Amino acid sequence: MAYLSNEKLVIVGAGGMIGSNMVQSVLMLGLTPNVCLYDIFEPGLHGVADEIAQCGFPGANITWTTNPEEAFTGAKYIISSGGAPRKEGMTREDLLKGNCKIAAEFGDFIKKYCPDVKHVVVIFNPADVTALTALIHSGLKPNQLTSLAALDSTRLQQALALEFGVQQDKVTGAHTYGGHGEQMAVFASQVKVDGKPLCEMGLSDEKWEDIKHRTVQGGSNIIKLRGRSSFQSPAYNAVKMIEAAMGGEKFTLPAGCYVNHDALGFKNVMMAMPTTIDATGVHFVEPKGTADELASLQKSYEHLCKMRDEIVELGIIPPVAEWKEMNPNL
Ligand SMILES: NC(=O)c1ccc[n+]([C@@H]2O[C@H](COP(=O)([O-])OP(=O)(O)OC[C@H]3O[C@@H](n4cnc5c(N)ncnc54)[C@H](O)[C@@H]3O)[C@@H](O)[C@H]2O)c1
User: In this protein, which residues make up the domain named Lactate/malate dehydrogenase N-terminal (predicted)?
Assistant: First the structure.
């Protein structure tokens, strides 16, 4: 089987639902045969490694370990879903303290064992803040680390496709920006349905509010239906992000990226923007929208600043003025 790359990819949290699905997706999409599975929970990890071996992927070279040094050494790409998931009734923000501590350790492992890693994707929630924590601790350049934010956009796309009875990929430009949480900013003004602008589709304000609500609650709805947090869609999209970073098909759904931009007024946060991931990393452009959409993005940004300041208070990341000491690339 031909693989896109031969470089080492580490899946952190591989014993869990998203992690195990990512290992399978990586091999099915032919990204790299050299996949290392890492988790702190040995039996789960061992079970996933056995199952993957029993798939019999041609040419695959699967290794697994609970030792971080062994896992991270030589890694060129990393995806991490290694953290606690939400349960019914919880928001992503409820995971802040515990998962940000894990993110700090994750960043430290990168700095210590694989400073030459090319790209890292962070999934575990609240993803914008865990990714920011990992970026500060890792010492990586901002364009080398992204967080998974795309599902909010694919949920919006799905809701609009159902509303208008069209195939999902006929809905384009359905994007959300800002935080991957209750305060995400849902943009309508760039959406086209089968090539026609959404504003010409006769959608009532009431219907649009309902679609927005379904988008924001998309993750909670999966928990209600399946009794657990989503895992297939995050696994697939995170793997597509790494495929793009490896030089495969570009990833153009919004990704969470580091933004520190005076002109835009967004400073020292990770958030979803109009982005492209390619072999040179992640690149963002200015979000275009109506005054209302930009105001909701501003609100989402302010919420992210609040969460960032909470983890500064907790001592998980240093105050902004001291970030450069930990990561000179910021
Ligand atoms: N960004 C997104 O769009 C998105 C979508 C869905 C879920 N998530 C998040 O992804 C994360 C994982 O979800 P899941 O369903 O796979 O959960 P899961 O509980 O099935 O798996 C998580 C795995 O991480 C491991 N783990 C915990 N702490 C670790 C550490 N310090 N180092 C390495 N591994 C560690 C656990 O042992 C477990 O195997 C959760 O935080 C969830 O909220 C994000």
Answer: 8-145
Q: Which residues contact 226 (CB under 8 A, 6 or more apart)?
A: none
CATH class as words, domain 9-147: alpha beta
Say yes or no: CB of residue 25 within 6 Å of ligand 1. no
Fold type of domain 150-313: L-2-Hydroxyisocaproate Dehydrogenase; Chain A, domain 2 (3.90.110)
Q: Are 55 and 21 in contact (CB under 8 A)?
A: no
H/E stretch holding 12 reads: strand 9-12
pLDDT digits (tens, 9 = 90+) for 281-319: 999 999 999 999 999 999 999 999 999 999 999 999 999
Q: Hey, what amino acid is at 2?
A: A
Which residues does the annotation mark as catalytic? 180
Locate the domains of the chain by residue range. Answer: 9-147, 150-313
In whole angstroms, what is the distance from residue 265 CA to residue 92 CA? 25
pTM of the shown model = 0.97
Angle (deg, nearest 10), helices 127-138 and 291-313? 60
Distance 86 CA to ligand 1 centre (A): 9
Q: Is 308 annotated as a binding residue?
A: no
Place 180 in a pLDDT band, splitting at 50, 70 and 90. confident
The 10s digit of each residue's pLDDT in 37-78 is 999 999 999 999 999 999 999 999 999 999 999 999 999 999
Q: Which amino acid is at 28?
A: M
Q: Map residue 158 onto helix, strand or coil.
A: helix
Average pLDDT, the chain: 96
